[in-house]
Amino acid sequence: MAAPGARRLTLAALASAAAFALAATPADAAQPPIPISELFTNPNAPIFEGEEAVPDPVYAPEVPQHPKMAANGQSNLHDDGYMSDTYTSAGPLGRAMRTRTSFLEGVCASITFDKRGRLVTVCVGLEGPKLVLVDPRSLDTIGVMSLPPRMSAGGNLFQDFAGGGYFYLDESDRVVVPTTTRHIMVVAVRGDGFVTERDYDVSGQLASGDKIVSALPDWSGRIWFVTGQGVVGAVDPASGTAQVHRTGEPITNSFSVDEDGGVYIVTDGALYRFDADQAGAPQVTWREPYENTGEGKPGQVGPGSGTTPTVMGRDLVSITDNADPINVVAYKRGRSVKGARRVCSEPVFPKGRGSTDQSLIGTHKSMIVENNYGYTGPASTFQGGVTEPGLARVDVRADRKGCKTIWTSDEIAPSVVPKLSLRTGLVYTYTKNRDDADPWYLTALDFRTGKTVFRQLAGQGLGLNNNYAPITIGPDGSVYVGVIGGMVTLRDRSDPNDVEPRLPRLGLKLKRARGAGALRARLSGDDRGLVKSVDYRIRGRGVAKRSKRSPFRRSIRERGLRGSRRYRVTASVKLRDGRTVFHKRSFRTR
User: Fold this and answer.
1) Which of 390, 420, 445 finishes a domain?
2) Would you tell me the crossing angle of helices 14-23 and 4-12 to the nearest 10 degrees?
């Protein structure tokens, strides 16, 4: 650590250093990227720690493809309409990784992919946001379009996500992005550039000092938006007419949508489900207040939940509250439910040292939460500064009577949105060491155990601070992170999607049924969710109807088998990824 006096002097210059990193002119279009400068580095900082991973798939039900958004995993900051923060494709495995940076104008947080596989991002700098089209391999800048500049306002510059921090790419490669002028622009990615196709002016419905935080479509194509002052709006894309509902409660993050018409929004006061009424206006379906100390903890943008709601499986939605300690909270999301709507509330991170401003990673039953306590901007992690450690996995119990903490990790991830690759079984986060040179690492955790598998150095110094930007995984397994200096990408030496995954943890169990003449066969193991179907055979002959539902149980009659002889049951297991594996078990006839 630097001497106290040296640290004070350096922090005094932080604002000007950040301004330089954010406001410098990026490379001209179609030119190779300028690497992000790393002025002060520690040559002894480890480049790679840990070991190469073997893909160990995790089951989760497929998130429905939103008909009005680009492909899942490629459409917005949180990957899909559910805001699941999961990918069905592979992320890096730590195999001879390569790193590249591009010096752009601002933090390129939301990264999407057009149909040609190019990166479509909004980079937000001191002067304002701009749309940028980037080559996914070289990071060459292909095209740039300026968006309306920042409006003069108070507050923390590094915690202001309005007017471009959130956007989505629709099914026709059009960027739908809120602006600082309280408009919603629809900009087509055409050729090597951008063309504005539509501009929805909703400023007449909003106060002059209000800001649009995020916009998303519902399943019918109606464009919903939320604002910092708690306005929930819906725009008819044909007429451009906007209708609003005023919650009176600030909103600081994005929201989620599902195929049933639900729009899930968290304010500083409550979690809401909205649906459109017959006239297309936002209507409150239900409202659930959550526990809240009323304090804006360091690491949070406001005094409430710091999460974008995460839709999970067929019937859940989850957030964190703002208690102390904070809780991961899951709710039934249906329009109406029997009994209590809240399913569980599970405390995470130590009292007085826990907060988050990141969406939960969500499968149908598992939620992963990250501790951001102590991060309020680049000064928090400058010259060896670190925040409170911690990530945790919380699962909803099978009987829906509570939740339980599965694991905790002591990794320090100051402000990144972590992501889960279902194919590799790895949780990817962005961590920092307690080192004056400020090294930043792509860090992979085992989803099942929470153990750190590997860390790969992304770079060192202020320019590599992600400042609330997420991990984004590309279709070829590359990782992209928006950082103060622009963007960094990390990738394996070859596509991790081509690596054979580990075989699922499965077994075959036989149990004699009551009464003579029948066995009960079933598949066992934690990975039954990865199984598509099971055929049971004896001596190559099918002995039961194909089973297509977990636990893949079937009765096997012994009729036709000789008595007092040993036979072997073979379970031919078809996996969801197309592979077939076999499990065998012997038994003796009576």
Assistant:
1) 390
2) 40
